[in-house]
Amino acid sequence: MRLLHLGNVVIDLVLTVDELPPRGGDAFASSTTATTGGGFNVMAAAVRQGLPTLYAGAHGTGPFGTQAREALTEAGIKWLHPAREDLDTGFAVTLVDATGERTFVTSRGAEATLTGDELPEPGDEDLVYLSGYSLLHDSNRAALLPWLAKLPDDVEVFFDPGPLVAEIPEHALEAVLARVDWWSSNSAEATLLTGLADPGDAARAVRGRTLRADVLVRTGPAGCVLAVRGQEVKRIDGFAVRAVDLNGAGDAHAGAFLAGIAQGKDPVEAARRANGAAALAVTRRGPATGPTKDELETYLRGLQAPHRE
């Protein structure tokens, strides 16, 4: 099975500041890094777990596009389309204050210009990844929704709404909910959609809004919640670690879970492995820190973390 990723690769410009400046003010950053991020983090995590991956989103010509393709190449990820000749890849400015809180401002680039004639025809064993960010870009949304509606029923679709789930146009969100096989989000995003604070209740409610989907809701250090159709909601315990950087934990979780499903593991085991991958990721600094398959296997062999019913 192959992962066909239809999200967006961007460059993350991360600036560390003591505190955000007031409106109209200024501040010096104590550190600045430029890393490839966005959908790249999920793809890198999936590839490290042995899942071949193809990036089917758009990318640009310019320094950010070049950086993105270099990162894809280094990670062993192939891409489908040639670079846009008139646009660079977009970027996100991330301000991290002394409390660890992150504030984002994103500049759209080539990744927001996907068109319908660029979308591939999935193979029988492809696992399709969709991002809520794509539904916020007019061109991507107009291309993806008709394509999604025509997918064969046996093509499995995984959807992560992202933190801006409340801003996705209602008609687009409903179209996705009608077709996806897996919804994966954190608890805050599930609450935004359902109004329910308890992750188990929210997962059950999201499942009820879909026609065919199973639901995974990440609950941070506690692990995640699984709402599989025809079964009771299950809470899958996380792992206790000393976290140094939470950035990219959800992406590591998603990539490892996708790899587990693609490799035929049942959802509980795939979720347990995803919890382990996220735990390892937060012990390392950087956004794309998901473990390799061997690293995860070694880690899990030394632990027992039974799930709770």
How does this model look, in words?
- The chain has 309 residues and is α/β, with parallel strands linked by helices.
- It has a single domain (2-7, 39-59, 76-83, 111-301), classed as 3-Layer(aba) Sandwich (UDP-N-acetylmuramoyl-L-alanine:D-glutamate ligase).
- It is built from 9 helices and 13 strands.
- The protein has helices at residues 39-48, 63-75, 138-149, 170-177, 187-194, 199-209, 249-262, 267-281, 293-301; strands at 2-5, 9-16, 31-38, 53-55, 78-79, 91-96, 102-107, 126-131, 156-160, 182-186, 214-218, 223-227, 234-237.
- Strands 5-4-1-8-9-10-11-12-13 form a 9-stranded mixed β-sheet, with helices on both faces. The chain has a 4-stranded mixed β-sheet with strand order 3-2-6-7.
- Helix 1 crosses helix 7 (249-262) and helix 5 (187-194) crosses helix 6.
- The longest helix is centred in the C-terminal third of the chain and has 15 residues, at 267-281.
- The radius of gyration is 19 Å and the shape is globular.
Order of helices and strands: EEEHEHEEEEHEHEHHEEEHHH
Sum up the overall morphology in one term. Answer: globular
Mean pLDDT metric = 93
By CATH reckoning, the class would read Alpha Beta
Number of domains: 1
Give the gist of this structure.
Strands 5-4-1-8-9-10-11-12-13 form a 9-stranded mixed sheet, with helices on both faces. A 4-stranded mixed sheet has the order 3-2-6-7. 32% of the residues lie in helices and 22% in strands.
Blueprint of the fold:
Blueprint: E1 2-5, E2 9-16, E3 31-38, H1 39-48, E4 53-55, H2 63-75, E5 78-79, E6 91-96, E7 102-107, E8 126-131, H3 138-149, E9 156-160, H4 170-177, E10 182-186, H5 187-194, H6 199-209, E11 214-218, E12 223-227, E13 234-237, H7 249-262, H8 267-281, H9 293-301
Parallel strand pairs: 1-4, 1-8, 2-6, 4-5, 8-9, 9-10, 10-11
Antiparallel strand pairs: 2-3, 6-7, 11-12, 12-13
